[in-house]
Structures are given as structure tokens and as C-alpha cells.
Amino acid sequence: MDLRVKHSLETRIEVARLFDAGFGFHAIATQLGLKRESVRNWHDQYMQGRLLDSAVMGNKKYSPQLKIAAVEKFLSGTPKQDVLVEFDISTRAVFDKWVVLYRNEGPEGLSKTAGRKARGDGPMTPEEELAFLRMENEILKKWVALAQEEDRRLSGL
């Protein structure tokens, strides 16, 4: 479930209008009741001419090669803002995560895919099925024990 707040195009247009009027991201965030970090990201996008770009408003996928090239360019001394523009990276937060991964795990850390591996649709081996059934039995035993404990607690009232 995505817990991020999605702001409307009208809100972004209002923010762009205020940037054009010379307001900074702190003032705009306060005036419109938005998070400063969101408005700061929008300011970066505005400076790149991408605030109202539909690609910025949705999820964007980046290849491992692009991630590695962008991080290495940043680590060689190029300012972060220039790297974001050159490689068309949507937000600082995304890029900052790549830098941390690269520093901790090297280029291999950026090649990994996120999330769990998809479970095969094929049948389980007998060992896998046995392990699954044992786990299921343990869960059911715990559930029954909790239900019995709840019954004892309620009957004692």
C-alpha cells in the first residue's frame, strides 16, 4: 500500500506560480500547508523545468547501469543537482538511497532488484510441502491456544 500523499496538478501549478513570484520553498510550504521536503523536491524539479512533467508525478524505473553511472559521477565531485538533471532522476531521496547502497555494497548493491523473488507456480517438492504443512499446523495450534486463553479469561469475569 502506498502511503505517500499524491498532490493534485492544481497544487503543483499553484506552487509553480509562487516560485515564479519569487517565493522560496519554505514560504510556499508554510503558506500552502505542505511538507517542506515535498516543496523542496518540487523546487528542484521546477529549476529543472520538470515540475509539471507527468513522468515526475509517477513511478519511474532506472536501470542499474544508469544508477551506477550517476552515483560514480557524483562521487567523482559533480554537484548532486547537476547529476539529478543530467540523468533525469526524479528526486534527491531516490538518489540518496543509491549513494548509500553504493557506499555500503558497491556497484553490485545497485544491481539487485527490490522485493521478494516471485514464487514459482510449479508444484512444491515433498520437502517444501512438508515444511509448509508443519508451519501451518504450528500457526493453527497457536491460534487455538489463544482462543482457549481468551475463553478462560472471559469466563472468569
TrEMBL record:
Database matches in Pfam families: HTH_23
PANTHER family assigned: INSERTION ELEMENT IS150 PROTEIN INSJ
The protein, known as: Transposase
Native organism: Aurantimicrobium photophilum
